[in-house]
Amino acid sequence: MTIREQREAWEAQTLSPRAMLSANTRGREEDIPPCPVRTDFVRDRDRILHSKAFRRLKHKTQVFLSPQGDHYRTRLTHTLEVSQIARTISRALGLNEDLTEAIAMGHDLGHTPFGHAGEDVLNALMPDGFSHNAQSQRVVEKLEKLNLTFEVRDGIFHHKQSGTPATAEGHVVSLADRIAYLNHDIDDAIRAGVLAESDLPPLCTEAFGSSHGGRINAMILSILEQSSQFSVLGSQIDFLPEHRAAFDALRDFMFENVYYNPAAKGEESKAKRVVRELFEHYLAHPDSLPADSRPTIEAEGIHRACADFIAGMTDNYAISEYEKLFVPRSWS
User: Fold this and answer.
1) pTM of the entire structure?
2) CATH code, 144
3) H or E segment at 88?
4) CA 319 to CA 187: how far, in whole Å?
5) What span, in angstroms and rounded, lies between the C-alpha atoms of 151 and 26?
6) Which one of 5, 89, 180, 299 is separated from 80 by 20 to 30 angstroms, measured CA to CA?
7) Residue 293 lies in a domain
8) Are 289 and 309 in contact (CB under 8 A)?
9) How far is 79 from 220, CA to CA, in rounded Å?
10) What is the per-residue pLDDT across 25-44, written as a single tens digit (0 to 9) for each?
């Protein structure tokens, strides 16, 4: 047996009946020879890790735009935290950690510069709307052509709260995404002086504790307790009912006090203007788009090409392009 076959045999003997086995994948859009060492989901993880879109995440906003300090989260560090939380849950529930990690690594590849501010602008400008989860799927399928398995692409597309992933591993990543961003955004907001630990709702601190690590651990344990007995056709992986209410209250609190807080979002109007004016410029001047946008323009239209180009930008690249196009320079 090859190393890959040994691993697939181990999965069949060890993992939960609810786990997605590597050997049972629905496959790729284009068949490729099997790897003697890596399972299909490990290969997908590796393809994402080596992609250009993954590298760009280190220069994309999570919540705070261009923060002055080395310890604020970026879209990349968020992705790594989601992966860690999701793998912990999957391991405890006997699910496929490799599939879980691949989905987590790819779930935000389509995020725009300036976080959700950029996404909101593109959603308003695109005739059919724009969402980062659909763009993440587009990145792996069309823009970088990573040729991933169905299960990874499905988990990437359905990672939002409103999604319905086809695998238990996809459900885990969706929950881990929310656990990660709520907790690290609390941490960053406290660091920025936008929140104090004492501001958190008592319902939430009573349920999950008052420390960063303690909250994450309590949330994971709640999910494990609620989900430990789920059957092959059983209920969705989730928090204990009493903790679900506390988690939702914490999310509502964060939207009211951080995500919509003018102190934290004071620069967002400027960021939105950058994205809007770049889009309008490329729309009026298609020749200023990269040469590799031509096939997209011909097949899907200029709006789609503009959205692809801007969504792929890092914060700094978008600002640089804006300055080059719209800010006068000294004559020499």
Assistant:
1) 0.96
2) 1.10.3210.10
3) helix 75-93
4) 27
5) 7
6) 5
7) no
8) yes
9) 17
10) 999 999 999 999 999 999 99
